[in-house]
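## retry 2 of 3
previous attempt timed out at serialization; input unchanged, resubmitting
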Amino acid sequence: MRTRAAALLEQPGKWQIVDVELDEPQANEVLVRFVAAGLCHSDDHAATGDMPVGKIPLIGGHEGAGVVESVGPGVHSLAPGDHVVAQFVPSCGRCHPCATGRGNLCDLGMYALLGSMADGTYRARIDGDEAGQMTMAGTFAERAVVSEHSLTRIDDDIPLHVAPLLSCGAPTGWGSSEYAAEVVAGDTVIVMGLGGIGMNAVQGAAARGAAYVIGVDPVAFKRDSAATFGASHTFADIEEAAEFARSVTNGQGAESVVVAVGVTTGEHVGQAVDAVAKFGTVVVTGIGDVNENTLPTNLWTLAMMQKRIQGTILGKGAPSVEIGRLASMYRAGRLKLDELITRTYRLDEINQAYADMHEGRNIRGVILHDTE
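## retry succeeded, writing output
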């Protein structure tokens, strides 16, 4: 089978629209017709080279939703016609992390940036060369062969143009507040970065009953939009936000700061540590250059005030559980997803879409594939 996709042919590089030749799904694999794909900053990190990948050419995309067209031998969890959401972290259900409730850290994640199937082999070719699929998914392709461990079935009433946000943006942001920051009623929470991840962190903090949910972003459009998702106050920089947090906490500071900046640096994390109170938590959700190792923070203050820096992937939640839970919340009107989508694009417009992201024009852009 042949299909179209946006791929990187070099790193760093621009997304290029290419023809892809697909193999048939093998054991425990599924052929998916992707209807829509989310434009997350993580794929841009691959394009810029901030995040090295193990296979070039690489078909991009890790947020996506579509319909199962066929299944390989041994697939029992999915059937043709099922609506599915891609997980950017696979979960086998059997390894030690999965068995202990940490499916977001599944051992199959070792293949995510290699872009292969769960057995280390490939199912896509570009100009005769084996091609990787971003996080074993490759949702920038109109069709893809994907491991069943990288897919979660959703009910048919969840719109497929909205469902890609359940792959990464919604569970990562929401879980950053609920699981990683452990927000409780009455807390003061700062969210740095009000893109697709940060807005969901705002939603999560507000739903947990935070007294103050303070958004930080230099882009006025994003600050203006934040109230829709539950922000009580917004500021253009972290210093102003930290000062406000201290003003409403008797000088103490925020209980937690979620760092969801598109290109996160050590400086951002250091600023967040300064903004939290004693026993406060800094959640590092955003990613940056893999080669950066600096973290400018005072170690005496970190120890003596018992502050915590917490890394997180997929919001510390088990992927299939969180996708299903948040889909139910969306259906019930308790999770805003439509409002996150600022603009939709055709596959051919992907580089314009990422230019719009860099210019701060979108909270989240979504590609709508031209598939039947």
